[in-house]
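Propose amino acids for all 241 sites.
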């Protein structure tokens, strides 16, 4: 697959710095969400060191919130591990989706890029790929590393604040995750070469995610919406509508 990045002539350092710059939307979201997790983690009984290590090793916002909740509820360790595995298995699909753009890269680069992908950095990367830009490894390292450093720093800061912040809603931190995904959605739609298709897919996902909760649990409704939206997108793009 041959694609051209607008900064393809940049030195790897320049590509890395471009990734750092492009990660700004994710960084802003991670600051708020990370601090929220730090507070939640401490409330659940985790130490500051445990919050820090969890962000370094697990590095998955939704999984970390689930982990803290299950620890606070004294759930069996086996159930915790299985739940986290099921929640994070989607990351293997993210890596698989980017692999065609990184076939010429050594295994260690592919492994490192895949290990640091999150929902948000994957969305950021795909918003560039749909415009025919190359997934330059240095650029990907830039967005991934900056995002993880921000996440680790924010969660640790939240843990340090501890009980000083007890009302996340008062600070708007409970809405930070939804706000960040909304911003990333707008960026993806604006950058899509066929915006009409992107709007249709977004509407299908929104309708099924919201309407599905009338008949199903929220988790199943979201899963249904994701599958239906992905199928709709594949059909539209396949037909070049």
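Proposal:
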């Amino acid at each position: 697959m041959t694609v051209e990045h607008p900064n393809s002539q940049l030195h790897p350092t320049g590509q890395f710095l471009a990734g750092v710059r492009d990660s700004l939307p994710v960084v802003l979201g991670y600051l708020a969400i990370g601090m929220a997790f730090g507070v939640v983690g401490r409330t659940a009984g985790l130490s500051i060191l445990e919050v820090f290590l969890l962000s370094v090793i697990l590095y998955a916002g939704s999984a970390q919130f689930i982990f803290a909740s299950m620890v606070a509820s004294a759930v069996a360790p086996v159930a915790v591990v299985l739940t986290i595995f099921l929640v994070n298995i989607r990351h293997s699909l993210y890596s698989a989706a980017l692999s065609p753009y990184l076939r010429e890269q050594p295994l260690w680069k592919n492994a490192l890029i895949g290990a640091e992908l999150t929902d948000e950095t994957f969305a950021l990367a795909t918003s560039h790929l749909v415009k025919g830009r190359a997934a330059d490894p240095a650029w990907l390292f830039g967005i991934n590393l900056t995002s993880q450093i921000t996440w680790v720093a924010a969660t640790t800061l939240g843990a340090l604040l501890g009980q000083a912040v007890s009302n996340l809603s008062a600070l708007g931190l409970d809405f930070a995750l939804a706000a960040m995904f909304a911003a990333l959605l707008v960026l993806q739609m604006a950058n899509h070469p066929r915006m009409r298709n992107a709007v249709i897919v977004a509407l299908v996902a929104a309708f099924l995610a919201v309407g599905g909760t009338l008949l199903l649990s929220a988790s199943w409704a979201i899963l249904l919406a994701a599958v239906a939206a992905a199928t709709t997108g594949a059909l539209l793009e396949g037909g070049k509508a």
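The two ends are 22 Å apart (CA to CA). Residues 194-241 form one domain.
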